[in-house]
Design goal:
Layout: H1 8-18, H2 27-47, E1 62-67, E2 72-77, H3 84-92, H4 98-105, H5 113-118, E3 129-137, E4 144-149, E5 155-160, E6 166-173, H6 188-199, E7 206-215, H7 220-224, E8 231-239, H8 256-266, E9 275-281, E10 287-293, E11 310-314, E12 317-323, E13 335-340, H9 349-354, H10 356-379, H11 381-400, H12 407-410, E14 415-418, E15 424-426, H13 427-432, E16 440-445, H14 449-453, H15 458-463, E17 468-471, H16 476-483, E18 485-486, E19 489-493, H17 504-516, H18 518-527, E20 534-537, E21 546-551, H19 556-564, E22 574-579, H20 584-591, H21 596-614, H22 621-631
Parallel strand pairs: 1-7, 11-13, 16-17, 16-19, 20-22
Antiparallel strand pairs: 1-2, 2-6, 3-4, 3-6, 4-5, 7-8, 9-10, 10-13, 11-12, 14-15, 14-17, 18-19, 21-22
Helix pairs in contact: 2-6, 10-11, 11-16, 18-21
Adenosine-5'-diphosphate (ADP) binds at residues 31, 35-36, 39, 77, 79-82, 90-91, 94, 97-99, 121-122, 167.
Length: 632
């Protein structure tokens, strides 16, 4: 018989399985049981619409047989089975496997830990078996086939005998070594324990013949003579799993670990969830849901590749793996599932989108998530800040998108770093801490907190003792602008024209100074023609010589952010160069105001300086450097 070779990818994985030093080799059983259950699911699904299947729901089962003499463990299902071709494709080429695809994205060979965390499907059998035989008959086919392999050397496929559709997997266990007892997987208590641990909510019964012993009936004489009891063995068929999906169990029955374990298993995350919520909604439509907030953003979360969605079950049967309609974009980080008896099993994807029941469920789920987050913010601040670090950006995008339509829903979940203690604060906390005379919610933008701290523009606001929100993400200012105000307090950039802080005297004084120096200011702005909209004397600067601010809708930060997007069209803020009339540099400028060549050089220097402070790229670094040398 021809021995076929595994595909390269499969061989690699297989090799890893065989040489695995992974301590949880036991997960192989979970993997095989899950496959069996999936196969039964498929045939059961068919049986709902196809009488020819000839099986009722109760007829479907997974059987485990352990034979200690032969050292074999057999797992049998009466599911959909596999044709010869499918045996070849599914078991010879593991690259098809969903779990492997996930793993290759996560650097398979780097981390053997991953084996246990996610399960690698069928090949995990080779962690405990020296030989694996799969006998399968596909539903609707009259031939059965046998796939056999002793590992990396390859596999054979031949015809076989099998009556009904389904699959039998026979593992010939490895010999025990000093450190490793494979024989224990034949022990009925061990098997029972593993099924309970990993496969309890598998929807079809996992059955096994379990041997018990009982005392034999004693004769009256033996009893009278006080003879010791004799025992006899008997066999009983037991269903090892409770079959009730976790989410259908009562909350009191479940422990925190059950929820967490379920999450890491099911949603391929090796970090425990930050938060979970078990929803039992008795209304119409009634549904159960398990909702999880991951503790870290998935590696592809902020990319186009990330797909949001919850698993959707209709009365325990999976109908969609990722139903995106169940989650709004701003809560796209939530993982979990929804199970409703009020959804039809045969509903198509297109119909689902228009399903009224589904919309109602989605609304209710959104409310749950929102209130869970608010609860967390109120009662578990540290946890919430952890959440905010992972997913805050998404909420800010949520505020900004759809023209601020979701402002009301999201604004109380926002956090920004505050200038006061460099701590995260909510908008509510900011407003509560506002001084009586304070009119605005002040914010400053920049790429980092350290950078913002150095901005000259923050001086005046800080000197007034007002708190400033530090906006460090690209989306922040857009979000703030689309909110416009919070609790009737307008947001105001520290770079804005009118900070509402300057006294009338100060304004008068500056105005007078500007008139007095109108020639100088004109000279400066002529020198910076096309670069700045105007040059003014600053009302906000205290110790710094210059800064930039902007007029109109587009701020300096927005110019930076928008121009970082790779498009042809560039946008520019209307820049205003502010000069501090109290700074000695101002005197210097006055003294050269008659020398237009010199003034022009100074103007360029000051403008470039201001750009640097803002963290903006400068127009002509060579010219700047030459000017500095010249001056020195
Ligand atoms: P995964 O389950 O992640 O797809 P596996 O390696 O466990 O990867 O299985 C590969 C494929 O082999 C499955 O997707 C399925 O099509 C098929 N398969 C495995 N076990 C069975 C079974 N007991 N009955 C029918 N098909 C099976």
């Amino acid at each position: 018989m021809e021995t076929k070779q595994f595909k390269a990818e499969s061989k690699r994985l297989l090799d890893m399985m065989i040489h695995s030093i992974y301590t949880h080799k036991e997960i192989f059983l979970r993997e095989l049981i899950s496959n069996a259950s999936d196969a039964i699911d498929k045939l059961y699904f068919k049986s709902l619409t196809d009488d020819k299947v000839g099986l009722a729901k109760d007829d479907f089962a997974i059987w485990i047989y352990a034979d200690k003499d032969k050292r074999t463990l057999k797992i049998e299902d009466n599911g959909i089975g596999m044709t010869a071709e499918e045996l070849e494709n599914n078991l010879g080429t593991i690259a098809n496997s969903g779990s492997l695809k996930f793993k290759s994205e996560n650097k398979l060979d780097e981390d053997s830990q991953i084996i246990g965390q996610f399960g690698v499907g069928f090949y995990s059998a080779f962690m405990v078996a020296k030989k694996v035989t799969v006998i399968s008959k596909a539903y609707g086919s009259d031939k059965a086939y046998q796939w056999e392999s002793e590992g990396v050397d390859g596999y054979t496929i031949s015809e076989a005998e099998k009556d009904n559709a389904g699959t039998v997997i026979i593992l010939e266990l490895l010999d025990d070594t000093d450190d490793e007892s494979y024989g224990e997987f034949l022990d009925q208590y061990r098997i029972k324990g593993l099924i309970k641990k990993y496969s309890d909510y598998i929807r079809f019964p996992v059955k096994m013949e379990v041997s018990h012993s009982r005392p034999k009936e004693q004769s009256e004489e033996d009893k009278a003579a006080n003879k010791p009891l004799e025992y006899e063995d008997f066999i009983e068929i037991e269903t090892l799993n409770s079959m009730i999906p976790l989410w259908k169990k009562s909350k009191t029955e479940l422990k925190e670990d059950d929820y967490k374990h379920f999450y890491t298993e099911k949603f391929f995350d090796y970090n425990e969830p930050l938060k979970y919520s078990h929803v039992k909604n008795e209304g119409v439509p009634s549904y159960n849901a398990l909702l999880y907030i991951p503790s870290k953003a998935p590696f592809d979360y902020y990319s186009k590749e990330y797909e949001k969605g919850l698993q959707l079950y209709s009365n325990g049967v999976l109908i969609m793996d990722r139903c995106s309609d169940l989650l709004p974009d701003y809560f796209s980080f939530v993982k979990g599932l929804v199970d409703s008896e009020d959804l039809s099993l045969n509903i198509s994807r297109e119909m689902l989108q228009h399903d009224r029941q589904l919309k109602v469920i989605a609304k209710s789920i959104e409310k749950t998530i929102s209130s869970e987050l608010k609860k967390m913010l109120k009662n578990e601040r540290e946890k919430y800040e952890e959440f905010w670090k992972a997913f805050g950006l998404q909420l800010k995008y949520g505020i900004y998108s759809d023209y601020g339509m979701n402002k009301e829903k999201l604004q109380d979940l926002l956090m920004f770093t505050s200038s006061k203690e460099k701590k995260l604060v909510t908008l509510d906390e900011y407003v509560t801490g506002m001084r009586e005379e304070q009119k605005f919610i002040y914010y400053a933008t920049g790429e980092s907190i350290a950078r913002i701290e150095q901005l000259p523009q923050t001086e005046l606001v800080k000197d007034n003792g007002f708190e400033i929100l530090y906006l460090t993400d690209n989306v922040d200012e857009f979000a703030v602008k689309s909110m416009n105000s919070y609790k009737d307090k307008e947001f105001k950039s520290v770079s804005a024209d009118d900070l509402g802080l300057e006294s009338t005297e100060k304004q008068e004084e500056i105005k007078a100074k500007e008139e007095e120096n109108s020639d100088l200011l004109k000279g400066l702005s002529d020198a910076l023609e096309g670069k700045v909209a105007k040059v003014v004397l600053s009302k906000r600067l205290k110790s710094h010589p210059v800064c930039l601010s902007s007029e109109g809708e587009i701020s300096l930060e927005m110019e930076k952010v928008l121009n970082a997007i790779p498009t042809e069209q560039k946008v520019f803020a209307q820049k205003v160069l502010e000069i501090n009339p109290e700074h000695e540099i101002f005197g210097k400028l006055r003294s050269v105001s008659g020398d237009s060549e010199k003034l022009s050089k100074y103007a360029k220097l000051l403008y470039t300086q201001a750009l640097l402070i803002e963290g903006m790229s400068i127009d002509d670094p060579v010219e700047f450097s030459n000017l500095i040398c010249e001056l020195m």
